[in-house]
């Protein structure tokens, strides 16, 4: 019975399964966002579980070993972060509809990209590079939502650093893995993820001393994430050429200058 059901689902084709999965998640997401914040909190875990199951339903074939974790990190993080982030916006129908549409587009892009990593496309192929770029971009969006949410709680600086470090480790780990996706994680992936997470936590701690608005503080941390993860990915892929490193340094430096100019003394 199970084999027949699996064969029937596989026969649907991945694109159809992706569409069904993403539509299901977004319908539930849309319903939750109609609720007050205190009631929506009770739906966070069911939404995360639904997202996990939907990713498996969409990809279905050849999910093995570490992929049971890696392929599911970003979709779950994205949906949960988007739900919390929504309540920082004006809560009305004109916000819910476009926000849900954007969530649908991003989530569908995540499904397509994670599937490419799952099937093991060669890193030299344009398909891999496209998926790699999409995932990196959406990861930065998730970082922005997560850090904005974190700083909006107005924790003390040590709680900010500790909470931020714990929350971002899976995302950083995923960022390292997509640079060289394998069923068995290389030891260096763990090491890079641990070191970068520590550096981000330290950066969050230092940033707490600066008189920055919440959104600017979040952008500062995202810029740091972009710089550290980007350089580490280039090292893992053995493409850390001087010109590429210079690009990361230039972008990070420009953002630092703009953020410095926004400091309110």
Describe this structure in words.
This protein starts with a helix and ends with a helix. The chain is globular. With about 260 residues, it is an all-alpha fold. The mean pLDDT is about 85. It is about 80% helix and about 0% strand. It has 2 domains: about 120 residues, no CATH class; about 150 residues, no CATH class. It contains 11 helices and no strands.
Provide the fold topology:
Layout (H helix, E strand, L loop, with lengths): L1 H11 L1 H19 L4 H4 L3 H16 L7 H20 L6 H27 L6 H27 L4 H21 L9 H21 L6 H23 L5 H20 L4
Helix pairs in contact: 2-4, 2-6, 4-5, 5-6, 5-7, 5-8, 6-7, 7-8, 7-10, 8-9, 9-10, 10-11
Keywords: Membrane, Transmembrane, Transmembrane helix
Overall pLDDT:
85
Q: Ranges with pLDDT <50 over ≥5 residues? A: none
Give the DSSP E fraction (strand runs of 2 or more residues).
under 5%
Distance between the termini: 68 Å
Transmembrane segments: 18-35, 41-59, 71-89, 95-117, 129-151, 157-177, 189-210, 216-236, 248-264
Keywords: Membrane, Transmembrane, Transmembrane helix
Which characteristics define this entry?
265 residues, 79% helix, 0% strand, 11 helices, mainly alpha, transmembrane helix
Q: Could you give a quick summary of the protein structure above?
A:
Helix content is 79%, strand content 0%. The protein is built from eleven helices and no strands. It has helices spanning 2-12, 14-32, 37-40, 44-59, 67-86, 93-119, 126-152, 157-177, 187-207, 214-236, 242-261.
């Amino acid at each position: 019975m199970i084999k027949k059901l699996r064969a029937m689902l596989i026969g649907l084709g991945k694109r159809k399964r992706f569409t069904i999965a993403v539509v299901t998640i977004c319908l539930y997401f849309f319903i939750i966002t109609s609720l007050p914040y205190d009631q929506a909190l009770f739906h966070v875990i069911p939404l995360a579980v639904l997202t996990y199951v939907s990713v498996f339903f969409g990809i279905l074939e050849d999910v093995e070993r570490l992929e049971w974790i890696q392929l599911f990190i970003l979709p779950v993080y994205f949906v949960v972060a988007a739900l919390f982030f929504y309540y920082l916006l004006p809560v009305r129908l004109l916000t819910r509809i476009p926000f849900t549409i954007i969530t649908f587009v991003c989530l569908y892009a995540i499904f397509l990209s994670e599937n490419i990593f799952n099937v093991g496309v060669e890193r030299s192929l344009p398909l891999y590079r496209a998926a790699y770029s999409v995932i990196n971009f959406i990861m930065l969006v998730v970082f922005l939502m997560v850090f904005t949410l974190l700083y909006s709680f107005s924790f003390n600086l040590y709680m900010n650093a500790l909470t931020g470090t714990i929350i971002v480790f899976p995302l950083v780990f995923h960022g390292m893995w997509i640079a060289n996706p394998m069923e068995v994680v290389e030891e260096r992936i763990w090491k890079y993820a641990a070191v970068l997470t520590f550096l981000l936590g330290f950066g969050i701690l230092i940033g707490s001393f600066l008189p920055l608005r919440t959104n600017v503080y979040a952008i500062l941390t995202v810029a740091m994430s972009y710089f550290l993860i980007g350089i580490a990915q280039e090292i893992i892929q053995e493409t850390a050429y001087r010109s590429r490193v210079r690009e990361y340094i230039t972008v990070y430096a420009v953002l630092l200058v703009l953020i410095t100019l926004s400091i309110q003394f």
